[in-house]
Amino acid sequence: MSSNCIKCTVVGDGAVGKTSLLVTYSTGSFPTDYVPTIFDSYAVNVEIKGRAGPFKLSLFDSAGQEEYDRIRRLTYHNTDVFLVCFSVVKPESAQNIELKWVKELKQYMPGTPFILVGTQVDLREDSKTLRKLQKKNQKPISSSVGKNIAKKVGAQKYIECSAFRQTGIKNVFDEAIVTGCCKDDDIEERGHHFLRRIRSFRLPSLKNRFSELAGNVRSGFDSVRTRFW
């Protein structure tokens, strides 16, 4: 299996636009109906200028509701990069980035990089949405506030997008691919990451070899590559 396979898992509060983000990116069409997600997955082949490709991006959608916490965490295994989403017109979802989502990722997937994504930016200018916020003495989350949150929680980057307008979508996933590819800095970690990719995609011909080689990860990526080829 090519090392150009990236697993990207999307997390965040319910109804912040996670599914719309994934569906719009993978199909090119904005979904008109909202159906709360428990679990779903998508696969997209993409090319990025200046990067050896194509890349196979496996996308995993997850439920943000508390009652699905245990199911959601099952999708975390072998994730290369997380997209942590909040809606720029739902201040409580931005508060939960630090209070819940980053805290959860650091507990269950420590060291895995994540990108902070501000969704539904088109609604910053929506009069109906603004009136609802004003009644609560709230206002949309600004881009500068989003960047500050990203810096505070240790996100690799902060990106804003609108699935409805289809703006910023490609940038989100291009950055996810780059972040997923470049997360390992030393040989030992790259060797371990390579084996994780193989296990994630369950290649039958390598099943026994993985078991044999798992204990030898510390010998470095070159030794792992030699055993496979």
TrEMBL record:
Keywords: GTP-binding, Nucleotide-binding. One of its GO terms (biological process) is small GTPase-mediated signal transduction. PANTHER family: RHO FAMILY GTPASE. The keyword Ion transport does not apply. GO terms for molecular function: GTP binding; GTPase activity. Pfam families: Ras. CDD domains: Rho. This is Cdc42 homolog. Belongs to the small GTPase superfamily. Rho family. It comes from Lingula anatina (Brachiopod). The keyword GTP-binding applies. The gene is LOC106167609. InterPro entries: P-loop_NTPase, Small_GTP-bd, Small_GTPase, Small_GTPase_Rho.
